[in-house]
């Protein structure tokens, strides 16, 4: 075992799941387990094509088109910057002459948007290899390898052309083999976190950028996670693209910390397909084992319970102070219906179409537990939670 990122987590080799992260002491609900800057960041091509997201910091342009202080790089006509600061710092980091040249070629290419997004990843990875070999080694150490498929072929051809163009203009740079590109693509698929924008009017969630974090890549998946990730990409100041992992509930010393790689309300079939196709394993977690034994009727029933309407907006101003006893009674009541009912009641965001996970705000002495959704950002107090359960009890 080795210490990872401060004193909260330790890397460990776990017999069933390979390497993972465990708690290095008892952890309180809501505690921040990890806050980490990205190793690599790249924009989603569809979002980037709107020219309303900063190439360097990924903030969104809040002003209507054509107004405000945003600028676009006159050379590649692709990278947009929110401020002079971002434009200046990017020229020696994220938007070097190599990246600028590569983006110019990408703009003229016939790659579809999905391939363009992955080409942006490879460009950022190549740039990292040139600028910061140490960080690039961290990327190479991440899990994931091969296969060489059609997609890898197309992207390898594109990247080789970019490198060839660049070699003509400047000093010789290393070429990358097809197999090397293919394995980098798998590392991206398995380790990248999407940084999303949530549109509250349409309930749509759109990924605007992807980021890879050296330490956060070690969290294993569980369909009943005990931690979840937050990001605050539109917050002012530095660190807006940091990943923040918070505990959903108290976690004992030595327990493994797991996150869910996708929304927690996905069905068994959806979860197993995603994990098999993109992460290369079959999930054997407690929830998957229980759900594998279910009949079709059970599945339909669970679907209803997860999506049960828990609208609290029509409630009166009834002053309801939640006691521990009341919470426990409510929990026992729900637990009867299906084994993980309480997990969803507590941690699945109640707002329609959101699918986010709720985690307590970081612990603060003397303050009631407030849950925060990691997708829509809405907060829920313990009193509101009890009211939701009460309504559920009456309606079922
Ligand atoms: Zn910016
Ligand atoms: Zn440029
Ligand atoms: Zn599972
Ligand atoms: Zn939400």
TrEMBL record:
Pfam families: SET. SMART domains: SET. Residues 1-262 form the SET domain. SUPFAM superfamilies: SET domain. Residues 299-322 are annotated as: Disordered. PROSITE patterns: SET (PS50280). It comes from the Eukaryota. This is SET domain-containing protein. It comes from Ceratopteris richardii (Triangle waterfern).
């Amino acid at each position: 075992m080795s210490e990872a990122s401060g004193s909260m987590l330790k890397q460990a080799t776990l017999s069933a799941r390979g390497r993972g992260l465990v708690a290095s002491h008892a952890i309180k609900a809501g505690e921040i387990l990890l806050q980490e800057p990205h190793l690599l960041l790249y924009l989603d091509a569809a979002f980037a094509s709107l020219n309303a997201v900063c190439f360097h910091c990924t903030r969104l342009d809040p002003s209507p088109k054509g107004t405000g202080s945003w600028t676009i790089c006159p050379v590649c006509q692709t990278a947009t910057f929110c401020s002079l600061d971002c434009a200046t710092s990017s020229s020696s980091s994220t938007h070097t002459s190599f990246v600028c040249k590569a983006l110019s070629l990408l703009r003229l290419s016939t790659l579809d948007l999905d391939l363009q997004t992955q080409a942006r990843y490879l460009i950022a990875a190549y740039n990292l290899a040139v600028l910061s070999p140490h960080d690039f080694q961290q990327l190479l150490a991440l899990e994931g390898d091969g296969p060489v498929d059609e997609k890898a072929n197309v992207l390898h051809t594109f990247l080789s052309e970019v490198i060839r163009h660049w070699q003509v203009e400047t000093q010789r740079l290393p070429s990358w083999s097809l197999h090397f590109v293919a394995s980098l693509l798998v590392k991206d698929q398995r380790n990248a976190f999407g940084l999303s924008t949530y549109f509250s009017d349409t309930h749509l969630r759109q990924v605007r950028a992807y980021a890879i974090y050296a330490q956060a890549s070690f969290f294993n998946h569980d369909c009943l996670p005990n931690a979840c990730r937050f990001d605050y990409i539109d917050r002012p100041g530095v660190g807006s693209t940091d990943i923040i992992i918070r505990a959903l509930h108290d976690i004992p010393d030595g327990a493994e910390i797991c996150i869910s790689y996708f929304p927690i309300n996905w069905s068994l079939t959806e979860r197993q397909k995603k994990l098999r196709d993109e992460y290369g394993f079959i999930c054997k977690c407690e929830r998957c084992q229980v759900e594998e034994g279910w009949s079709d009727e059970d599945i339909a029933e669970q679907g209803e319970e997860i999506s049960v309407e828990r609208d609290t907006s029509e409630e009166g101003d009834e002053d309801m102070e939640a006691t521990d006893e009341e919470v426990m009674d409510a929990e026992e009541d729900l637990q009867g219906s299906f084994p993980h009912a309480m997990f969803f009641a507590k941690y699945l965001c109640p707002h329609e179409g959101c699918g986010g996970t709720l985690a307590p705000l970081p612990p603060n002495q003397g303050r009631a537990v407030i849950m925060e959704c990691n997708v829509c950002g809405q907060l829920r107090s313990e009193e509101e939670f009890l009211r939701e359960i009460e309504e559920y009890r009456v309606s079922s």
